[in-house]
Design brief:
The chain is mostly helical. The N and C termini lie far apart (63 Å).
Length: 134
């Protein structure tokens, strides 16, 4: 009888801990932005990679052009979905995004690119040209 009484309460405690853990990790940001435009060095490197490889389709500030608005998309998709899409590509309604898994620069800088785009998506950096924090 004790097992049945303890079991639901243990499950409730475990669920609460998992929810708290997920909530606290949701607040973790992969970037640091100061003064609305100064990025930490990793995120600034993501900006440079984005400009070299992504901006021609997704726009100078990720606002979307031929490719979708990534500043909005990163509020909807998970980091894992982002990584899979960048690596493998994706068919869209109008066109397709190529996979970048054979591009070592993009694949090695994936976390940096994500950090830059997440800063845009979160509104931490406006539609300005970022600088590298000192």
């Amino acid at each position: 009888m004790k097992k049945n009484i303890l079991k639901p309460s243990v499950l409730a405690i475990m669920a609460s801990l998992l929810a708290f853990s997920a909530f606290s990790h949701a607040d973790d940001k992969p970037y640091t932005v100061t003064d609305g435009h100064a990025l930490d060095s990793e995120t600034f490197n993501g900006y440079k990679l984005y400009r070299n490889w992504c901006a021609r389709c997704h726009g100078t500030v990720a606002q979307g052009m031929v490719g979708p608005n990534l500043a909005e998309s990163l509020n909807v998709i998970s980091k894992d979905e982002f990584i899979t899409t960048v690596a493998k590509g994706k068919m869209g309604q109008i066109g397709m995004m190529p996979g970048w898994e054979s591009n070592a620069q993009v694949m090695e800088g994936m976390d940096q690119i994500y950090a830059y785009l997440k800063a845009r998506a979160d509104g931490a950096i406006g539609e300005v040209k970022p600088t590298k924090a000192k």
